[in-house]
Amino acid sequence: HVQLVESGGGSVQAGGSLRLSCAASGNPYGSAYCMGWFRQSPGKPREGVAVVDVDFTTSFADSAKGRFTISRDNAKNTVYLQMASLKPEDTAMYYCAADRVCGSWFPWTPRSRLDFRYWGQGTQVTVS
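Now predict its structure.
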């Protein structure tokens, strides 16, 4: 049973930066998981932000391209989302997720899958 715990959220002014972390445990397949970041604002559907595959390849939603970076440290079982040039529209609860495959994220389209198997509880990001 995979457990994911996010951290690093907070309040920041527009144009600022934040780094989110997601610590994974209980992985029966070790680091052999696709890891992703998703977000949801009140009244809006959940949307994908970025994924990093087991071979460290990455894919980003259009909203994140050029501003966000996703990375993973398998030795620490941790995935990071470095966010820069933040905008008020980036305000959301950010969730870390894991699954055995990234599936339709390469390349990203608005229909890229959101149905990852394992989810964290989320960390709030507020940009003002």
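Residues 88 and 127 are 5 Å apart (CA to CA).
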